[in-house]
Amino acid sequence: MANEQTDSDASRDERRYDGKDRRRRPTPMVSRYLFRGRRRGARRAEEQDYSYVDRPGGWMATAFICIVGLSLLDAFYTLDLLKRGATEANPVMKMALEISDEAFVVIKTVITILGAGFLCLHKNWPLGRLCLVVALVGYSVLLGYHLYAQVTVA
């Protein structure tokens, strides 16, 4: 019974919060507290969407690692298929391949890390969550394509 909130407690909380933000400016996307601050989510349910946090959480870390890992597998399988006669469809990656295989992997990995990091920072945006899921599904489908191509391409 100690955890139940009484009517007087609820009315006191409603009086204390007047809808105005006491901070001079909202929490920035990237701050000095990123990954070491205390903020894991918004304080109120109505503030949950469109807010930044200091600690993105386990799901975001897992999604980030999966996207980067799938991207590295994509790079490995792409290089293997290119050696067997396939061609690169992405013009940016095609230019990176003209430099070297190592440049291709480094450029692809850096772009993926920046993009996945940006999406993870926007985990509280509906579009950010959607894009993160699309990236995971897209890379998974692409990996399936690569595995199919490994069997069918001579």
Number of helices: 5
Mean pLDDT: 79
Oligomer: single chain
* Tally of structural domains: 2
Order of helices and strands: HHHHH
Categorize the overall geometry. elongated
Sheet/helix structural class:
mainly alpha
Total number of beta strands:
0
Could you list the spans in which at least 5 consecutive residues all have pLDDT below 50?
none
State the separation between the terminal residues, measured CA to CA. Answer: 70 Å
User: What is the percent of helical residues?
Assistant: 55-70%
Radius of gyration: 22 Å
Q: What do you see in this structure?
A:
The protein is an all-alpha fold. The protein has two domains: 33 residues, no CATH class; 97 residues, no CATH class. Helix content is 60%, strand content 0%. The mean pLDDT is 79.
Give the key terms:
2 domains; 154 residues; mainly alpha
Strand-helix topology:
Layout: H1 7-16, H2 58-83, H3 91-99, H4 101-121, H5 126-152
Helix pairs in contact: 2-4, 2-5, 3-4, 4-5
